[in-house]
Amino acid sequence: xxxxxxxxxxxxxxxxxxxxxxxxxxxxxxxxxxxxxxxxxxxxxxxxxxxxxxxxxxxxxxxxxxxxxxxxxxxxxxxxxxxxxxxxxxxxxxxxxxxxxxxxxxxxxxxxxxxxxxxxxxxxxxxxxxxxxxxxxxxxxxxxxxxxxxxxxxxxxxxxxxxxxxxxxxxxxxxxxxxxxxxxxxxxxxxxxxxxxxxxxxxxxxxxxxxxxxxxxxxxxxxxxxxxxxxxxxxxxxxxxxxxxxxxxxxxxxxxxxxxxxxxxxxxxxxxxxxxxxxxxxxxxxxxxxxxxxxxxxxxxxxxxxxxxxxxxxxxxxxxxxxxxxxxxxxxxxxxxxxxxxxxxxxxxxxxxxxxxxxxxxxxxxxxxxxxxxxxxxxxxxxxxxxxxxxxxxxxxxxxxxxxxxxxxxxxxxxxxxxxxxxxxxxxxxxxxxxxxxxxxxxxxxxxxxxxxxxxxxxxxxxxxxxxxxxxxxxxxxxxxxxxxxxxxxxxxxxxxxxxxxxxxxxxxxxxxxxxxxxxxxxxxxxxxxxxxxxxxxxxxxxxxxxxxxxxxxxxxxxxxxxxxxxxxxxxxxxxxxxxxxxxxxxxxxxxxxxxxxxxxxxxxxxxxxxxxxxxxxxxxxxxxxxxxxxxxxxxxxxxxxxxxxxxxxxxx
Length: 653
Hints:
CATH class of the domain at 67-209: Mainly Beta
Shape: elongated
Radius of gyration: 62 Å
Mean pLDDT: 84
CATH topology of the domain at 67-209: Jelly Rolls
Structural class: alpha+beta
Strand content: 15-25%
């Protein structure tokens, strides 16, 4: 079983790699399209999409670490060694650019030889585009006359492809272009002078691009379907992979962008209020920025959790939401509406002429007692409420059976006639007046001393008590004893709700127009007008059979009833309806022609039709008579020759 573990680990690793690759997440050191590229840098610097950003591995160079120095650590040799110096030709391919004191980390050939050389074996054939020679910074005369050759075979002299040569004035790092296929790179110096003929350089770098990349710095990518591209020109020999186009297969196809050409331009959230945005193939940049709630150059990333709105410029924490709320990255809308004093989706607008939650209360709807200030949070009235209103903003009518200023008066403490079921919140007015002994609109004030009864209208001094100094009950004015002769009742001022002989008639049976009409204990007079249909001093006599209405002034005969026998003394209503042409309860209103029951249109139509028929008949008669006359004339004309013949015949005889 222990022998199987390595295979299981490899299989599991392969499965994980495949899963992440499919999901678009490459496992370092792989990156790029379909995870086909390898990072040559520290794992921490390897992005799954763009590759390396810094810290290239030894032997790798360039901004993306895609440029390989194929001479690094390869086998080297040289013609001679400087006496007392390191006998190590590989110092020129150790990957270090540190020269050290007296260039002790650089290769050095023996001076005085007529020719000298240094060579590196690249192990296999490569197409060599460029190489670089790092000369010793001092002793620049030793770089003079150095020639660089590339060849397929080991060569110690001047055969092969000449890549370039250097002079004493050549830069410390001299680049040369070979553009041929080679395995060996040879640096050769032919100098027969008696001077310093040695070669002294510190590093030789031969660069090729990693598969799938090209360009001088190997920073460009090609996405060929049938193998890598030419690392110098980037040209693909076949078709491009999906989503890519161009000779080098490095351009995104239509409507796609990004390092992997996998982002649709249509997925962006560009601000296109002025015009449709272009779509940069590399970045997807929106011309006029993003719509609200989105950021980055291509406007595909939502605002961070604590920001929202246009350019993600609004802080979620500055909203005035009611309770805890999420924060929509576009609108910042509060889940449960706004706290007091604020409104709008994101609850950042202050109330204007309104107040409260979501600013849903109008300042004008309050019932403040003076003052115009309206705090946006509470709407509190600075000087209290008008009578009949309560709470800080004075928008709630008095509750719990109260009324008046500050709702301090209780409806139950009133003494209304007919009970306290109805109670006006502002002043507690009793709709049917007060019980005896009380006054004011709310009937909560007792009669003043010396007055009593309903509305405190009766004077105690006008009673006819046998004892003039007796007390005066504020409710009924009771004498609390006997009355003077001719007077009766509790208050010795009449008949106590009755009148007439022996107080036999009830004041309530009258039909006075005013509810508070007096009731004389002797006559029962209303001392005023009667209700419609009634007459007399006591308004207890109905109108006669011929009159009705106010003061019995309306005549029944003026109505236009179909049944004149009935005439209600109060309303004069016609029981059997109205005669034609009249309407209303009393049939005293003329009915308009448009609303008449008589079919005027039909009658007019009938008359017109009759006239047309008569005219047609007359025309026919005239025509027939004329025709008869014409026939008679023709007959008479034909008979004249016959008579002449007869006459002639007679004469002949």
